[in-house]
């Protein structure tokens, strides 16, 4: 598997599958933070120690497979261009921190892009495993199995009382961040999400934008994840998160029904106007594109738009990001050039659906 494989397609293979509650929950993710027991954390470790960890992963896991996760590609971050790094961030295969700040950084990515391992990020190892739709328990089971596979060759930093030891105290314990990516357009339109977020935060969960901490919730897409990693088991954390997500799913469906019943014509107008903007615009900024794509996806989910698939919308959410646009163009683009190309690609993809 080569780097170009991950650059060519905006949508990861696993994202083409339909998951439970897929009209609202885009994906479920489990991230596990782990460290080597005899090496200082990346923020303190000598460069040669970090390079040793990086080289260990290349020697042991490059082109290896584990169950359904085949042909892991080992990719040193230093080998990537700025655009290539940005594309991997936009596809959620690596974090912005790994792309910009980590020393001796690398990643392992499975052929289907369902599993990625970030090496020498904030911790020595950060395992990410994704499933389509609302499948937290299944994702946790597979993440445990993959973690056990790595641990056969790695002595993790672990304390009998505190659990897994991590660079940041907020990850000590399970070392786990479980999250779901949710599309909540009706709650956004009715402003209900604004009062729900503080309540969710009080339950030990956090609501972020599409790219995690510090990012904006573009296109009414929100990431809900746990904050607490110490004092609870992984299963308890999943149960708490699942309970809140199920409530959000219920509220979103209720809000969608309410909008259709009380403001059906206005909602249809908003959806079809967005479709028209996407189909005919010659220049469009990323924020406007995300908003229009969100409205059109809602139209698909409500059965108002029948000639466009959810997969096209998922693909366009990534394909129209700055990194992917420049990867597609094979050159650095100005903001205006990106806006023109973004509009062109959206028109082209929508035409393919007809």
UniProtKB/TrEMBL annotation:
A motif (RDXXRA motif of the pArg binding pocket involved in allosteric regulation) lies at residues 338-343. It is an enzyme of class 2 (transferase). It comes from Virgibacillus profundi. GO terms for cellular component: extracellular space. The lineage of its organism: Bacteria, Bacillati, Bacillota, Bacilli, Bacillales. Appears to be allosterically activated by the binding of pArg-containing polypeptides to the pArg-binding pocket localized in the C-terminal domain of McsB. Residues 24-255 form the Phosphagen kinase C-terminal domain. The gene is mcsB. GO terms for molecular function: ATP binding; creatine kinase activity; protein arginine kinase activity. The keyword Transferase applies. Keywords: Allosteric enzyme, ATP-binding, Kinase, Nucleotide-binding, Transferase. InterPro entries: Arg_Kinase, ATP-guanido_PTrfase, ATP-guanido_PTrfase_AS, ATP-guanido_PTrfase_cat, Gln_synth/guanido_kin_cat_dom. Catalyzes the specific phosphorylation of arginine residues in a large number of proteins. Is part of the bacterial stress response system. Protein arginine phosphorylation has a physiologically important role and is involved in the regulation of many critical cellular processes, such as protein homeostasis, motility, competence, and stringent and stress responses, by regulating gene expression and protein activity. This is Protein-arginine kinase. Belongs to the ATP:guanido phosphotransferase family. ATP binds at residues 27-31, 92, 126, 177-181, 208-213. Its EC number is 2.7.14.1. It catalyses: L-arginyl-[protein] + ATP = N(omega)-phospho-L-arginyl-[protein] + ADP + H(+).
């Amino acid at each position: 598997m080569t780097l170009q494989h991950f650059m060519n397609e905006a949508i990861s293979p696993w994202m083409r599958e339909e998951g439970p509650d897929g009209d609202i929950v885009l994906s479920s993710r489990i991230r596990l933070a782990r460290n080597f027991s005899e090496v200082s954390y990346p923020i303190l470790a000598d460069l040669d120690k970090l390079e040793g960890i990086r080289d260990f992963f290349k020697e042991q896991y490059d082109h290896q497979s584990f169950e359904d996760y085949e042909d892991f590609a080992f990719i040193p971050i230093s080998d990537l261009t700025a655009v290539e790094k940005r594309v991997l961030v936009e596809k959620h295969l690596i974090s912005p921190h790994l792309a910009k700040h980590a020393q001796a950084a690398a990643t392992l990515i499975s052929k289907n892009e369902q599993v990625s391992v970030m090496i020498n990020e904030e911790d020595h190892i950060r395992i990410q495993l994704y499933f389509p739709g609302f499948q937290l328990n299944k994702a946790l089971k597979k993440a445990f199995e993959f973690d056990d596979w790595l641990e056969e060759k790695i002595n993790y930093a672990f304390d009998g009382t505190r659990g897994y030891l991590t660079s940041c105290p907020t990850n000590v314990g399970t070392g786990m961040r479980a999250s779901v990516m949710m599309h909540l357009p009706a709650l956004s339109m009715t402003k209900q999400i604004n009062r729900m977020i503080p309540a969710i935060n009080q339950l030990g969960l956090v609501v972020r934008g599409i790219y995690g901490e510090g990012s904006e919730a573009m296109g009414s897409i929100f990431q809900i994840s746990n904050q607490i990693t110490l004092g609870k088991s992984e299963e308890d954390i999943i149960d708490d998160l699942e309970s809140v997500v199920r409530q959000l799913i219920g509220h979103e469906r209720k809000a969608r029904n309410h909008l259709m019943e009380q403001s059906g014509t206005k909602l249809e107008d908003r959806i079809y106007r967005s479709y028209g903007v996407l189909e005919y615009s010659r220049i469009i900024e990323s924020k406007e594109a995300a908003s229009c794509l969100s409205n059109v996806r809602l139209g698909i989910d409500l059965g108002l738009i029948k000639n466009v698939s959810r997969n096209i919308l998922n693909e366009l959410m990534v394909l129209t990001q700055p990194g992917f646009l420049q990867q597609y163009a094979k050159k650095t683009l100005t903001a205006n050039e990106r806006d023109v190309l973004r509009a062109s690609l959206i028109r082209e993809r929508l035409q393919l659906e007809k």
